[in-house]
Give the backbone structure.
Amino acid sequence: MAGAPVRALRVNYVGELGWELHHPIEYQLGLYDALVEAGAEFGMRNFGTRAMDSLRLEKAYPMWGHELTCENTPLEAKLGFFVKTDARDFVGREALVQQREQGVKVQLAYLEVDAEGPMPSTSNRCSPVTRWSAWSAPVATATVCRRAWRSPMCRPIRRPSAPRSAC
């Protein structure tokens, strides 16, 4: 592609129909220029990382350092299906098996919020809201206590079954 060795993946972090292009960095500028030129007739345009963050949030895609940290477990982050505790031993295995048996006390939640302005303070959360966005709907992420999972103010986001255009 434009003289650059490129691996094109039909997978996108924001869940939209698009491509991720992986290539050696020294080809970045020439590849970018070629893409801008080729995309002009289709109305292709740049977008910022905040827009990307809003889109991935609406798709409930977690991000390391935001929703995923060393402070939560795969089960609390709803990623337990990635961890096979019966396959082999690993650091933290016993604690994860115990948590799986006893159930999680807190859980990462992607929420569509029925509120205007800043996220209201509520005892229904166990931690502060980690992200807040209002691209097409007010959405937020928070770690919520199991006892307070159903809040009248927030409801879980339903992931769309089909991709849609970001534009």
Observations:
- The chain has three helices and six strands.
- Strands lie at 7-9, 20-22, 106-113, 131-133, 139-145, 154-156.
- Residues 98 and 104 are 10 Å apart (CA to CA).
- Residues 159-167 have pLDDT under 50 and may be disordered.
